[in-house]
Amino acid sequence: MGIKAALPKYELYLYTAVLYMALFWAASWILEASSENVNRKSFRENVKPGWHYFGRKMDAADFEWVMWFTRFRNYILFALSGHVIFAKICSMLSPKRRSLIYMIYGACAVFVTMGWSYITLVVSHCVLLYTVSLVKRKWLCFVAGLTSLATFKMEPLVTWQSGFVTGTFELQDILFYGGCGFSIMRCMSFGLENCERKNGNYSFLDLLKYNFYLPFFYFGPIMTFDQFHLQANNPDLSRKQWEMWNITKQALVHLGVIVVVDVFFHFLYILTIPSDMKLVKHLSDWSLAGLAYSNLVYDWVKAAVMFGVINTVSRLDHLDPPQPPKCITMLYVFAETHFDRGINDWLCKYVYDYLGKDHDSIFRELLATISTFAITTLWLGPCEIVYIWSFFNCFGLNFELWVAKFFSLRPFSTIEGAMSEAMSRRIRGIFNAANFWQIILYNVLSLNSLEFAKLVGTRLVLKGFPVSTLSVLFVTYCGIQLIKERERRLALEEEAAQADALKKEEAKEKTE
């Protein structure tokens, strides 16, 4: 059935009321658990003094958030601000050479933070993968690239290479692994795009310009080489109407989100509570469901803000970077689940879509998903929790196709064809609600722990059946229908915009 199937307004109002009441109820349970257990011994390491005028401690369990927006924010802001100022002045003087200017500033910044040995190590991998790309064999680029990536993910090579970098500052390990990992992925993109080029080869300088663009160097996101090369070498620096206003508005939104998240961390210890399994076992089913859901929402917010800050800088450089990941609240299918759109776009372009084609064949889809998650496992770093996460998400992606194929057969297709579109939407929403919780459970284990994910699954599916199971699924169903309603309105708006554009084009042809 089509995406434009509508439901009665009173039904949507009911879904909205149920969803918000459930969210506030779950939040109240988490708030109570946070307030009553703030002085537990297990909380001392992660719950730190916060803003003094709140009179409450703050959840500081996430090192990445603390690094970006508390402890090292001044250093990060200084480096990015220097890039913006330096790049703007130089690009105004020589717009045709701005990609070279970006590279020079980026290489100098990397040298200052990590030293010559680190730059030499990164460039040596660039030289190796550039040499392989000249052969113009995609499979060889993959083998060389994944082998290089494995040297930063597996012992003893990772220890040997990290020994080239001297220094003891706190960010050294993060910058080392982040810069090297993203550099290998960028080099692979360069090599694969060079294989696609029919006439000649891209130069090694093109690879260096691509790799040493500072905003993307350490933390991503990844732009594929074809997009970066086209945009960074475009001499036209004119902007669309309201573009600077939109960039400013985006920056202010990110600043507002950072403040809101920090405020929430003073009241809801959603990151620290799951680490204390003794406490978690005594929480209600609704608290566990709220914790699992809120952890995924927070991880999306963190990714959206961190990539959003970098994307704001890159937009000032007239680039169009990968968009922030789709909100986990808006997801109910595995095919759209990701927390890093840059890596997701990279994998889709070079692996998933390349092998899966139209994603309609069961065998091709199985091959594409296994290959995709094998590379993802290597990218994240092979370990038990990553193996489990990859297996379940790979299974979920394939299971969706199997279920869709099964219900496309008779008599199911005939039965659905006889239904109204609204009833078909309701029934599909039930299956989507179950799928939504599969996505949460399969991903929360990588964010918290396998024990926490097992406890949430056991309490909601087995011990909590039928009351907790059905009530949580009903609330989720309400949320799914609101998501579908939003998708319906966006589809209608897009259709209306296309119709208007077609009418304008026809009117233009008549006048000519």
Give a quick account of the main beta sheet: strands, pairing sense, barrel closure.
Answer: 2 strands, antiparallel
How many strand units?
2
What is the assembly state of the chains in this entry? single chain
How would you describe the shape?
Answer: globular
Strand order of the largest sheet: 1-2
Uncertain parts: none
Radius of gyration: 25 Å
How would you describe this structure in keywords?
about 500 residues, about 0% strand, mainly alpha
Task: Explain this structure.
Helix content is 72%, strand content 1%. It has a two-stranded antiparallel ribbon. A hairpin with a 7-residue loop joins β1 (47-49) and β2 (57-59). It contains 21 helices and two strands. With 512 residues, the chain is mostly helical. α4 (98-114) crosses α9 and α5 (116-133) runs antiparallel to α6.
Write the layout of secondary structure elements.
Elements: H1 9-36, E1 47-49, E2 57-59, H2 63-71, H3 73-93, H4 98-114, H5 116-133, H6 138-150, H7 157-162, H8 172-196, H9 204-211, H10 214-217, H11 225-232, H12 243-265, H13 277-280, H14 285-316, H15 341-356, H16 362-380, H17 384-407, H18 412-418, H19 421-447, H20 450-463, H21 467-511
Antiparallel strand pairs: 1-2
Helix pairs in contact: 1-14, 1-21, 3-4, 4-5, 4-9, 5-6, 5-8, 6-8, 12-14, 14-19, 14-20, 15-16, 16-17, 17-19, 19-20, 19-21
